[in-house]
Design a protein that fits this description.
single chain, 717 residues, mainly beta, Rossmann fold, Tachylectin-2, Chain A, 3 domains, six-stranded antiparallel beta sheet, 7 helices, binds 2,5-dideoxy-2,5-imino-D-mannitol
């Protein structure tokens, strides 16, 4: 260790437990000067904290009795001390004190003592692995406590701290537990910092317990870091600002600018987890795309709303996190999907709040023209009871599966769709109505369409879009997105289906749309990952959006999709390739992991054509877009480096053969294909960093191709 506290205050209350005594003894062994300081003397002001460069409170039992002896005095003394540049380390259940001490508005929600029969430790967040507390470890999974030891803990599980950065989740029984936010760093505006380590430490057993010395090493480095004048100055992603702050988000995006497999012109979160697009709206000259975002890491948990905006669909910028769960509200466990509605010229959000086993609609309003800050309705939830007719599905997670919102106005009435499932039948879309311009009072009308179980047991993210004489309803059924073209009769109510299909035949889910100023309907979908949870955590990011797709239904009731024309502005270096193809691969003179390939293929006497993208230099690894036997297929068998959860091919049927027009958008781990006049197939593959070649060949004969290719620039400001 290069720095260590010159003088440490080891805080205690009453009689020291064996664990606290062992920690004090250890501190005296490794540090030059350690004083045992009673918390009561801090609370009553008789202890002079200014003498210490770090204070450490290690509690293996409920700390409330210590707080009972003068919480306000303690909070004031620590605030002074921290504002003067001091460092405070809270370990095990002392982390419970962050809320009463005013260090965070939200305290840990998982507190107690467990007796795990397995090894536990810290799952280090990849963007924070250079935090000085983890010095000396080159593994993101740090085992600190062997099996069979008591494990007092105070960590965040359903919640996240409001102001602290989660440096590490949990690790137990050789499995990642990213949802157990265990190591948290709280920067202080005036200088000083607090570090919490809420589990998996034992000083009493450190020598006999396997891995116990690793926990002591983290504490030793943490104490050194807290003693340093600028403890986190060298970090790749500074943690001096809050996690919702746009500068912090932009720093994370910069740090991940070259992250392997991370798309650059398909929208992503700056880092961490992203799923559904939400609240899409063109407002005050900009497109606003909100998205399901977990600031705690690349896993689905504690869902906030992230926010990105663009004036032109070409250049996007990150905005501060727009919505966060409220520990006292009906959205405590997550702000799930919803929409922006402009009612009487005022933007209103309707989204699903989750708390315990309930998910219910919540409302938020704003007068911020940039839509960065929102006021939640104190009367939330706006619909307090779920319908009883028909009987809706109850699952292990939810008393009623009831979520996601699509709202529109017609002839003075507001209509509101919510996704659900009818018990024992299948996914359903429920209709509500209102004449309240504030969108608070809703009258339940009934289901408009219910699937048979074959279309999924719950329908999520329903959306209704209107095109001349046609209505288009789409639902996400747990696996893919089904659309129905037909007519919605809001009186009955009932959706009459004339035609149906899939919006995309690959990795595409929970789409949502908005209207461009010129009337086009633009749709984005979430492109979920096809690699496992540990790989997502280690990457530090998860999830991307599809390109914005212009969607419409023609007079014959046929659905069309094409990429928004604005995307052409991202095109850079260009190459073309025209002429006959035979069965050997012809290389394109343009390589890259961010490419647009527009091609028209005539089969002549060939059976099919293969386009290879993201190819290794030796030609051994590639993703193959194959057209053969009236089928368009993406073959992913040799497309990825490293473990993936699915290499199954994905495909769609095409009506005719002979000639085909394809637009293929390659973006690192995304291959998004538009075939003919609007069938879509999007696949996730993980080529790593080196594979970037493109080539094409005919199958079983000769074909003719006319291909234009461009490199595509990043979409981020
Ligand atoms: N994602 C949200 C839900 C929605 C699901 C939760 C669909 O509101 O039903 O993150 O992906």
């Amino acid at each position: 260790m290069t720095v260590s506290p010159s003088r440490l205050a080891y805080l205690h209350h009453g009689t020291r437990s064996p664990e606290q005594a062992a920690a004090l003894e250890w501190a005296r062994d490794v540090l030059p000067a350690v004083d045992a300081v009673p918390l009561v003397s801090v609370a009553d002001g008789s202890a002079d904290l200014a003498r210490y460069d770090v204070c450490w409170w290690h509690a293996d039992s409920d700390p409330s009795s210590a707080l009972a002896d003068g919480t306000s005095g303690l909070a004031a003394a620590f605030a002074d001390y921290l504002d003067g540049g001091g460092g405070l380390l809270l370990t095990l259940r002392a982390v419970e004190a962050v809320e009463p001490l005013g260090i965070d508005r939200i305290g840990p929600d998982a507190v107690g003592v467990a007796h795990p029969q397995s090894t536990s430790g810290f799952l280090v967040h990849p963007l924070y692995e250079d935090h000085p507390a983890f010095a000396g470890f080159d593994d993101r999974r740090i085992r600190t406590l062997g099996p069979g030891h008591a494990s007092p803990h105070a960590r965040y599980e359903a919640l996240l701290p409001a102001d602290g950065h989660v440096l590490a989740g949990g690790f137990t029984d050789e499995h990642d537990r990213p949802d157990r936010s265990t190591v948290v760093w709280w920067p202080r505006e005036q200088g000083g910092a607090v570090l919490g380590v809420g589990a998996s430490l034992s000083f009493a057993d450190r020598v006999i317990a396997p891995y116990g010395m690793a926990g002591a090493s983290v504490v030793e480095h943490a104490l050194a870091a807290l003693a340093a004048p600028e403890p986190t100055a060298g970090m790749r992603v500074p943690v001096e600002r809050g996690y919702r702050d746009v500068e912090h988000l932009r720093a994370m995006r910069r740090a991940q600018a070259d992250a392997p497999n991370k798309p650059t012109y398909h929208l992503t979160a700056p880092a961490n987890w992203l799923n559904d697009p939400n609240g899409l709206v063109h407002w005050n000259g900009r497109y606003h795309l909100f998205y399901q975002y977990n600031p705690g890491g690349a896993y689905h948990g504690s869902i906030h709303w992230g926010h990105a905006t663009s004036a032109d669909l070409v250049t996007w910028r990150d905005e501060p996190v727009a919505l966060s769960p409220d520990p006292d509200g009906p959205d405590r466990d997550g702000c799930w999907s919803g929409c922006t509605v402009v009612a009487d010229g005022e933007p209103i959000l309707l989204y699903t709040g989750g708390r315990g086993r309930d998910q219910l609609p919540c409302r938020a309003t704003t007068d911020d023209v940039d839509l960065r800050t929102w006021r939640k309705d104190p009367a939330n939830p706006v619909i307090a009871e779920t319908p009883t007719d028909p009987p809706l599905l109850e699952t292990d997670d939810w008393a009623t599966e009831f979520r996601d919102h699509c709202v529109w106005e017609a002839d003075g009435t507001w209509y509101h769709l919510v996704g659900s499932g009818v018990a024992g039948v299948g996914g359903t879309v429920l209709l509500y109505e209102s004449t309240d311009p504030e969108l608070r009072d809703w009258e339940y009308r009934g289901p408009v369409l219910t699937g048979d179980g074959g279309h999924g047991v719950v329908w999520e993210c329903p959306e209704l879009l209107r095109f001349n004489e046609w209505d288009l309803l789409h639902v996400s059924n747990g696996d893919h997105v089904d659309y129905f073209v037909g007519h919605l009769d809001t009186d009955t109510p009932r959706f009459e289906v004339v035609d149906s299909g899939r919006l995309d035949h690959g990795d595409f889910y929970a789409p949502q749309s908005t209207e461009a100023p010129d009337g086009r309907v633009l749709t984005w979908g979430w492109l979920p990952e096809e690699r496992g949870a540990p790989e997502q955590w280690d990457a530090g990011w998860s999830g991307a959006m599809s390109l914005p797709r212009e969607v419409w239904v023609d007079h014959d009731g046929r659905l069309h999709q094409r990429p928004a024309e604005e995307l052409a502005a991202l095109r850079g270096a260009h190459e073309s390739l025209s002429g006959p193809l035979d069965e050997s691969w012809t290389d394109l003179d343009l390589s890259g992991q961010a490419l647009e390939l527009d091609l028209t293929v005539a089969l002549d006497d060939a059976d099919g054509v293969e386009l290879g993208v993201l190819e290794a230099a030796d030609g051994e690894g590639r993703a193959v877009v194959r057209w053969e036997d009236r089928e368009l297929r993406i073959d992913r068998a040799a497309a990825s480096e490293g473990p993936v959860s699915s290499v199954e091919p994905q495909w769609l049927h095409l009506p005719a053969d002979g000639t085909l027009t394809l637009r293929v958008f390659v973006d690192h781990s995304v291959v998004e294909v538009f075939a003919g006049d609007g069938a879509c197939l999007t696949s996730r593959v993980y080529p790593g960093e080196a594979r970037d070649g493109v080539s094409i060949r005919a199958l079983g004969g000769r074909a003719t191709v006319d291909l234009d290719a461009w490199r595509v620039a990043s979409t981020w400001e």
